[in-house]
Amino acid sequence: MHRILHVGLGPLGRIIVADLVERGLGRVVAAVDSAPDIAGKPLSTVVPKAGAGTLTVLPSLDAVTNWRDIDCALVTTSSDLAKCAPTLRDLLRRGVSIVSTCEELLFPWLRHDALAKELHDLAVKNKARLLGTGVNPGFLMDTLPVFATAVCKSVRSVHVWRIQDATTRRVPFQQKIGAGLDDQQFAAKIKDGSLRHVGLGESLHFISKYLGLGVTRWEESIEPVKAARDLTCALGPIPKGRSAGVRQVANGYAGDKKVITLEFQAAIGQDNPHDRVVIHGEPPLDLTLAGGVHGDIATSAITLNCIAPLLAAPPGLHTMATIPMGRFAPAHS
Questions:
Q1: pTM score > 0.85 for this model?
Q2: Which among 128, 205, 207, 222 is least surrounded, fewest beta carbons within 10 Å?
Q3: Rounded to whole angstroms, how far apart are CA atoms 88 and 141?
Q4: What pLDDT digit, counting tens, does each position of 135-180 carry?
Q5: Which residues, other chains included, contact 180 with Cβ-Cβ below 8 Å and sequence gap of 6+?
């Protein structure tokens, strides 16, 4: 069983810890969260499914003492790689391999080229490994379309849709897509960068790199999805006409030719949720996951399923295309 250091016990982190124990994939030997209402509490009170025990949530990595007992760290703290960087550096310097849900870490060379090189060098020097993953980015709009082309003789372009009903998603996700906001509030949050699906550009450049599509420029748009009727969600009521969610579209061009289109839409009460990948090539492919993939369940699953493949990879900064193929991991004895 994997011995895990878990960093970040927000809603997603708690789901991952509970699933780790329930699936029999490992045990948490240290847990860290700096939030005053979490640090110092028994892990079993923060995540009841973690089971009874004496493990206490620590306020920082400096408080961890059992480094030799740790096989891998799971970091579920921020979408922003710059904010995660101090934690990642500290772990890599100690030789600890990391699977993180940081969206920008899926393909960090897009926005953080120098930092990506630094983290890679640290990992190699200390014989550690680093991976950013998740359901999206991490699989549905990047890894899945790339791996689907294994049966293709040629690929001209890629079009991916992720259309989600966000009604059952966790509260931070509903906040991130702007559920319940009026036009002025929505525009203000776009301006300050707090309202967007993080990772669409990373997914686009992941596809371009691994399929050799040669994107030379790209663009991204964002707009609210308006509620067509009165709705309600975990954040409260959403009157008709207010934002029920967000729609983002990213296009990548090789010269003047559009070679990648990614369409992301997540809204409360979204009709016909689905995930779809269309490959224009030889042979052409059209894959649809009816109903769509539940983001919280899948993010936890892929994070845990990637531990073993990452640990089997050589030291360094990895992507989902450079580790052994991730798959469902059965329980370890």
A1: yes
A2: 222
A3: 25
A4: 999 999 999 999 999 999 999 999 999 999 999 888 888 998 999 9
A5: 233, 235, 236, 237, 238, 242, 243
